[in-house]
Design a protein that fits this description.
The complex is a heterodimer of chains A (368) and B (288). By secondary structure, chain A is of the alpha+beta class. Helix content of chain A is 46%, strand content 15%. Chain A contains 12 helices and 8 strands. Chain A has a 4-stranded mixed β-sheet. Chain A has a 4-stranded antiparallel β-sheet with strand order 2-3-7-6, with no helix packed on it. In chain A, helix 4 packs antiparallel against helix 5, helix 4 crosses helix 6 and helix 10 packs antiparallel against helix 11. The longest helix of chain A is centred in the last third of the chain and has 25 residues. Chain A is globular and about 65 Å long. With 288 residues, chain B is mainly alpha-helical. In chain B, the strands form 3 sheets. Chain B has a 3-stranded antiparallel β-sheet with strand order 2-5-4, with no helix packed on it. In chain B, helix 4 runs antiparallel to helix 5. The longest helix of chain B has 32 residues. Chain B is globular. The two termini of chain B are 29 Å apart. Classes of the chains: A alpha+beta (368), B mainly alpha (288). Chains A and B meet through helix 1, helix 8 and helix 12 of A and helix 5, strand 7, helix 6 and helix 7 of B.
Chain lengths: 368, 288
């Protein structure tokens, strides 16, 4: 998929990104990453500057570069506290899904608006009775002429209150067995029959929601793959969610926290536990680099990728737990916030228990 | 070299070292008996075969074999634990030791607490030549917590070890820890697939699956930590300490999965535990 439009070496690319970020963030202060209005504009700003869709092919509005440039950009962006745009679900999940499995019409319609920051997406997978057992979704998508009619409930849907579209998994065949009864759809959120109720999280914010569907409609041309291809598409999408770029973004956040740890935990309170957590944070980076280099050389190593989310999520939790237990008065608020926020890390994107099942069965080959 | 373009990092091993590992692995596989049967083995013969094959010079060419590549050499040694001065010979020859071909080499490693005598890995092994400064007098009393990594004490003061030698050897010993841990994890997984309780393989129980999955996660995390240290001296002490600690926890899991049989001398898991314990302690001295 590499279509280098320039022979610019990576070091030059990094210099260019760094200079551009400095200009783009000038005057925004340290709160750029928390400023909702600025965050909403951020994807569009990236697009105008030619930094959106770095590893997407040029025919879809991307820059035709590789995950290496994605990595460098994310590292530089996190270094200076650049915001995360609202289009993450579109950029990381829906874009790659449509590129791999979408129709020409779907690519034309959906891909470029994602990069332009004009289309915010949410992911309608989890349900009250289908969490770790995702295949158990009970939202129905009943075919009616050229349309599907959707009824049911989704939950833990990040960005749902802002989203223009939802990539949604629903039961299309009520009689077929598990894993062969689901369809995947690109659903407009701007229609009757959809109600979004934000849920307040333990850290106080409300970035995810319940989504109630009562007769929402999706045209058949907005189905991805076949009538019952939803499960395999969902698995492909989830593996994108657990990739090296996500890990690098997490690493950069963790590294910021280790700086905080060092300031909180000046000697003589610095001890082996602090050393170990710093080493674990750096190991997240080197682990992501292993995965990245594998991606660049088309050399997949399941054993590397399968443990990546386990590594960063538990490193984050342990770091936040340690930081909060230092009782450092200057930074207590931040540690307490990190502690509460990190609790969800072993649940979202596949819980720790599901991840361990995957490692045990698919990497180690233990019996099911 | 396959440094990641533009970042200048050695993440993956070179093709060259992977070939070396394959060749060295074949020799070790043919020659080395499990540590528990070492009395019936022929360590001297193993050394001769390795030396004749030039495997003790495998990392001599620094352009071909980076410090990151040393991890792979350590890893294959750690899987077999031949009990001969291969790691020390590889590192000393790589760092320009003047010695006749085929002679096993070692060195005196000062303790991180200067008041204690320096230690010489494989100090009492047949024909071993101590490299660096005056040859220390070896005390007869040997520390032999790990029969596969025996230590002799050096009487009197010894010369400081050059930084490159210390760091190369620390990485290679860390690689041995990874290899030993990987060997024990493989053994535990294999055992969990065949050992039955309650009418089914114990590996089908989620409690054991998760224990082994966590060990696998720790093995990969430890590997990434050693890769960090091999690329960045800032990671040498912290990264290798994390890796060694993870390897120790993997050996604990392997023992737990084996149950009672894992606690026996004759099963032999403990040789890999002992080797990891001693290597870990030497790494502390080398990176102090």
């Amino acid at each position: 998929m590499r279509q280098a439009i320039s022979d610019e070496p990576a070091s030059k690319f990094r210099t260019r990104v760094r200079a551009w970020l400095q200009d783009a963030l000038e005057g925004t202060g340290e709160d750029a990453s928390h400023d909702a209005a600025f965050r909403k504009r951020w994807d569009g700003i990236l697009y105008e500057a030619g930094f959106a869709g770095l590893s997407w092919p040029t025919e879809y509005g991307g820059q035709g570069l590789t995950v290496m440039e994605e990595y460098i950009f994310h590292e530089e962006a996190a270094r200076v506290g650049a915001p995360e745009g609202y289009g993450k679900v579109g950029r990381v999940l829906v874009g790659p899904l449509i590129q791999k499995h979408g129709t020409v019409e779907q690519r034309d319609k959906y891909l470029e608006p994602i990069l332009r920051g004009e289309a915010i997406w949410c992911q309608g997978f989890s349900e009250p009775d289908a969490g770790s057992d995702l295949a158990h979704v009970s939202t129905r998508a009943i075919r009616n002429g050229d349309e599907y009619v959707l009824t049911g409930q989704k939950i833990w849907t990040s960005w749902a209150d802002e989203a223009h579209y939802c990539v949604i998994l629903a039961k299309t065949d009520l009689d077929a067995p598990r894993h062969r009864n689901l369809g995947m759809f690109l659903m407009s959120m701007d229609q009757p029959g959809i109600e979004v109720r934000p849920i307040r999280r333990i850290n106080g914010d409300a970035t995810f929601s319940e989504v109630f569907l009562d007769g929402a409609r999706v045209h058949v041309r907005d189905r991805v793959g076949g009538h019952t291809d939803g499960w395999s598409l969902a698995m492909s999408l989830l593996s994108d969610e657990r990739g090296p770029i996500e890990a690098i973004t997490r690493y950069m956040n963790l590294r910021g926290l280790t700086t905080l740890l060092e300031s909180c935990c000046a000697r003589p309170t610095w001890d082996a536990a602090c050393d170990e957590i710093v080493a674990r944070v750096e190991s997240v980076r080197w682990h992501a680099l292993r995965s990245l280099e594998n991606t660049l050389s088309d050399h997949r190593e399941q054993k590397v990728d399968a443990v990546m989310k386990l590594m960063w999520s538990h490193t984050w939790q342990d770091l936040a737990r340690l930081g909060a237990a230092l009782y450092c008065p200057e930074h207590a608020d931040e540690w307490n916030r990190q502690y509460l926020e990190s609790r969800a890390a072993s649940i979202f994107s596949g819980s720790t228990q599901i991840q361990r099942n995957i490692v045990a069965e698919r990497v180690l080959g233990l019996p099911r | 070299m396959n440094a990641i373009e533009g970042i200048g990092l050695n993440v993956r091993p070179s093709g060259f070292v992977l070939e070396v590992v394959e060749g060295m692995g074949a020799v070790l596989d043919a020659r080395v008996v499990p540590p528990v049967e070492r009395d019936s083995g022929d360590a001297q013969g193993t050394w001769m075969t390795l030396a004749e094959g030039g495997w003790d010079s495998a990392a001599e060419d620094r352009d071909e074999v980076s410090r990151r590549d040393l991890i792979e050499l350590g890893r294959i040694i750690g899987r077999y634990l031949p009990g001969v001065p291969l790691a020390t010979s590889i590192v000393l020859r790589r760092n320009g030791a003047v010695a006749a071909e085929g002679v096993p080499l070692s060195l005196a490693i000062p303790r991180r607490h200067a008041a204690m005598p320096a230690r010489v890995p494989y100090g009492g092994s047949p024909g071993v030549q101590i490299v660096g400064g005056n040859e220390p007098i070896l005390e007869s009393a040997k520390e032999d917590l790990a029969p596969t990594l025996p230590l002799a004490s050096a009487a009197g003061s010894v010369d400081a070890v050059p930084l490159d030698v210390r760091y190369d050897l620390a990485i290679l010993f860390a690689g041995e820890c990874l290899g030993a841990a990987a060997h024990l994890l493989d053994a535990a997984v294999d055992y969990a697939k065949v050992r039955e309780q309650f009418g089914r393989p114990i590996g089908a129980f989620q409690s054991l699956k998760h224990l082994l999955a966590e060990a696998q996660t720790h093995l990969e995390e430890a590997t990434s930590a050693v890769i960090w240290a091999s690329n960045d001296e800032a990671g040498m002490r912290r990264g290798l300490r994390l890796a060694a600690s993870r390897c120790m926890s993997i050996t604990e899991t392997a023992g737990q999965v084996h149950g009672g049989i894992g606690m026996t001398w004759d099963m032999g898991l403990h040789f890999f535990v002992r080797h990891t314990m001693v290597a870990r302690d030497l790494i502390e001295d080398l990176t102090a």
